[in-house]
Amino acid sequence: TQNDFMQEWLPWRDKYMSIIFETEAQEKQGSSCETCHKAERVIQCKSCVGLHAWCKSCVVNVH
Predict the structure, then answer these.
(1) Cα 50 to Cα 19: distance, rounded to the nearest angstrom
(2) For 35, which of 20, 22, 42, 58 could close a Cys bridge (C-beta 3.0–4.6 Å)?
């Protein structure tokens, strides 16, 4: 059932999500920070929704 599938998947959730976030962050590397538009994007927040990435300085200010 759907519930059985979810119960099997839950222990693997963090592993899958970390792979997805790493992949998305790699796609953003090399482009500029979405806040200052000057520095390179190097940090992606794992709790933010969407594909957001900031430079080291801006990530602190955004959060």
Answers:
(1) 15
(2) 58
Query: CB neighbours (10 Å) of residue 1?
Result: 6
At residue 7, the pLDDT reads: 93
Banded pLDDT at 25 (limits 50, 70, 90): low
For the chain, give the percent of residues with pLDDT over 70: 84
Domain count, the chain: 1
In a 13 Å sphere around the CA of 21, the CA atoms on its Cβ side amount to: 16
Task: Residue 24: name the closest of 56, 58, 55, 52 by CA.
Answer: 52
Cα–Cα distance for residue pair 6/46, rounded to 1 Å: 21
Distance (Å, rounded) from C-alpha 31 to C-alpha 36? 12
